[in-house]
Specification:
With 255 residues, this protein is α/β, with parallel strands linked by helices. It contains 9 helices and 16 strands. Strands 1, 4, 7, 8, 10, 13, 14 and 15 form an 8-stranded mixed β-sheet that branches. The two termini are 20 Å apart.
Length: 255
């Protein structure tokens, strides 16, 4: 089964860093977060990837075209032009880099890679979030449910304090909002049957809008609930948090 990764967005909330590279190429521990996501899937045996490129897609393509040079030690004979690369770590992945357009919405990006999934079920996720999701259990859940789409949901860590006041505004109580009190959100890490393409329309909308709403209305979407680690990388403080976990050797998404 192939893994489709949405990696075409601009990541505008990252400011200067995404003026130089697309968000999926922002590094954690010296590797793009896109690599970390792929590494997690590969640890469960899923090693065929379709990356939906868009904004600065040439940088993603350059990374994989020259992967052996970036991942290993290189020696060059400038006189003869001979190049010798010694890779410390090899990945047995097959990666398709699809140009899905600069401003294409997520539904449209998926439509553009239809030919690469060959009418088969596929996994789908975003190129800017890591988790320790058990992919085997996710797949088992999807097969058991028998619906077109299964999305992973989770309750994110509380980021805001809950404030209780009286009618005049006097603070009566203040506490950090516990994770169990958070709403369930879409964490990515989805499984799709080929029938999903019938719900994408002309691709002019976000996947999370009309397509998901129609799937839900038709009773064709289920959820796999994940209570472990999950972190999107929306802002610089998210990157710093992930970097600190990686440097400490306690990154939950590392196997």
């Amino acid at each position: 089964m192939k893994v489709v990764i949405l990696a075409g967005g601009m990541g505008t909330r990252f400011g200067e860093e995404t003026q130089l590279k697309p968000k999926p190429m922002i590094e954690i521990g010296g590797r793009p977060i896109l690599w970390h996501i792929m590494k997690w899937y590969a640890s469960f045996g899923y090693k065929e990837f379709i990356v939906c490129c868009g904004y600065m897609g040439h940088i993603i393509k350059d990374y994989f075209i020259n992967y052996s040079a970036y991942a290993g030690d290189s020696s060059y004979d400038l006189k003869t032009g001979k190049r010798d690369i010694s890779m410390k770590e090899k990945e047995d992945w097959k990666v398709t880099l699809a140009d899905t357009g600069l401003m294409t919405k997520t539904a449209g990006r998926i439509l553009k890679i239809r030919e690469y999934v060959n009418g088969e079920p596929f996994m789908l996720t975003y190129g800017d979030g890591v988790a320790d999701i058990d992919i085997d259990r996710l797949m088992a859940c999807h097969k058991e449910c028998g619906r077109i789409a299964t999305i992973t949901t989770t309750q994110p860590e509380g980021r805001f304090g809950a404030v209780q006041t009286d009618e005049k505004g006097l603070v009566l109580n203040f506490k950090e909002k516990a994770r169990k009190d958070q709403v369930w959100v879409n964490a990515g890490f989805m499984v799709m049957e080929p029938e999903i393409f019938e719900y994408l329309g002309d691709g002019s909308e976000m996947l999370e809008d009309m397509p998901f709403e129609k799937l839900a209305k038709d009773g064709q979407m289920d959820t796999y609930r994940h209570g472990g680690f999950w972190s999107p990388m929306d802002m610089m403080k998210d990157k710093e948090h992930l970097e600190s976990l990686w440097e400490s050797g306690r990154a939950p998404w590392s196997r």
